[in-house]
Amino acid sequence: MAVRKLKPTTPGQRHKIIGTFEEITASVPEKSLVVGKKASGGRNNTGKMTMRYLGGGHKRKYRLIDFKRTKDGVPATVKSIEYDPNRSARIALLYYADGAKTYIVAPQGLQVGQTVMSGADAAPEVGNALPLANIPIGTVIHNIELRPGQGAKMVRSAGGFAQLTSREGSYAIIKMPSGETRKILLSCKATIGSVGNSDHALEKSGKAGRSRWLGRRPHNRGVVMNPVDHPMGGGEGRSSGGHPRSRKGLYAKGLKTRAPKKHSSKYIIERRKK
Q1: How far apart are CA 90 and CA 63, in angstroms?
Q2: Quick one: CA torsion of 182, 183, 186, 189, rounded to 10 degrees?
């Protein structure tokens, strides 16, 4: 995966940096694994806007991704690597030996024609899903479950990876992409390798229109509003706006927003870096 910078032939091309899409091998998704996706435009059931700065954007079809990897012991062949408009990572179409077809999040280095497997007996190789109890210490992993059988919830975006650092009783100690160190049950599954499309972070849209294609409408800052509209509004000239806070008055910087009695806090060994 690489990025390409375009020549500044127009104002929109001047700062545009986009992916090369060279790893993508299919242009049409598998029909049996696609469902319609409805966009709300940020409106509720009465048509009132309840979320600002949303709406428009290109129509999307949702690709059904297998985050559970429950077909243990059945080998699957990678048929194609595809683009998914619903996530930053690429997806891989798997053809199982028993005839089933599924999509998975494509890890870095996964090639068409490669064989992947899931289950406790699978080898710790890229694309294989194993319980944390069977993964060697120090392995780079992604698509991690929080509860056994729940399906992968963490480390799913482009370029993301976590590391299995040690085991402690019935728990594995995982170093997360945020820097947080936490415990996860050994019976939870994770996939070997890091998520592909790692150059996604280097991309630049180049123009406002590309944000509109993604369904993001113009976002106006609090400091440019009037005092009646925002706590940071008002003032003569271009004033900075005082304490950074939300429209409802909640502090935006330095205020801890995690619930103090949250159930999962006992599994966190070291909090993420600020």
Answers
A1: 11
A2: -40
For residue range 103-119, what is the model confidence (pLDDT) as tens digits? Answer: 999 999 999 999 999 99
Nearest CA-CA partner of 154 in 266, 258, 264: 264
The pTM for the full model equals: 0.91
Q: Judge: domain 3-201, CATH 3.40.710.10.
A: no
* DSSP-based three-state secondary structure for 264: helix
What topology is assigned to 224-268 in CATH?
A: Ribosomal protein L2; domain 3 (4.10.950)
Q: In the chain, what's the furthest Cα-to-Cα distance?
A: 70
Q: Which helix (H) or strand (E) holds 111?
A: none
Contacts 24+ apart (CB under 8 A), 243-250: 246/222, 247/222
Tokens of 87: 């996530």
Residues of the chain with CATH 4.10.950.10: 224-268
State the average pLDDT over residues 74-82: 97
Across the chain, what does the average pLDDT equal?
Answer: 94
d(CA 15, CA 36): 34
Question: Please, where are the H alpha helices in 130-255?
Answer: 208-213
Residues of the chain with CATH 2.40.50.140: 3-201
CA distance 153 to 147: 9
pLDDT (0 to 100) of residue 49: 96
